[in-house]
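hey can u check if this looks right to u? its 260 residues, i copy pasted from the old doc so theres a chance i mangled smth
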Amino acid sequence: MRPIGLEGYWMTFFSKTFGWALALAFGATAAMTGPSYADRAATANERAAEGKLLQMPVTDFRFNATLVTTSKVDEIIRPGDVIARFEVHVTNTARLKINTIPRRGSYPQSVPAGTILFEVQLDNGVGYCTPVLPDQGLRRAQCFRDINKDGTFDAGYITESIDRGLRIYSARLQGLSPIPQTPYEVTPGDLIPSEPADVVLKSISGNKIKFDYKLNGIRLTGEECELNSEKPCQLMSQAYFFELKDGGLRILAEQDLNAP
């Protein structure tokens, strides 16, 4: 997980989307020669470098978001109240050009050509993941890597059970394995509309206050602050000063950190 500074706070992102299209047929050459697999040694090296499991950074949900509403100075907020709402925008996505090979334990087992994948930032590059679908009972999905950066996916993961997120999500990745070279194209982020993200006051305990970040109502991660007259509480792109008041928090000052 990368450190977050104010100047670079909005320079990275976690993009997401979903979509379906008709499956494309494999070319005649592939039909005659069989699938071309990635270099297994390279994939093994990737596994060794990353370890067995890799966690998508939930902090990426904080990036590439636009403030919609925020509580104002002198307002009092209490646990359960939304202090700020944002719209999280899609940035980069990818469209599969052919069907992927089936992998047991995920849904769908074979991801159809035309599916729009969302980009996730990993420790050593980026991956592209299938969205969770409305009819998805099995909460495990597939993610793909272009290790050689040549426009074809050559390795893939299966997620652990997805418990944070709806269509888009954060999850641990496992089972990085070579797959037949699967061409894709990077596509723009305006294929789907933005989605709502809320910052919710979770609890107040002495001088410690906790907030939850929720995307589409699902908790992704949290933030903890201390009441401090010298240091504001930074919640996504907003900075706040608070004081205890009537069992809640009174907002003394608030600032949009993206304002010119």
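Helices lie at 28-33, 40-50.
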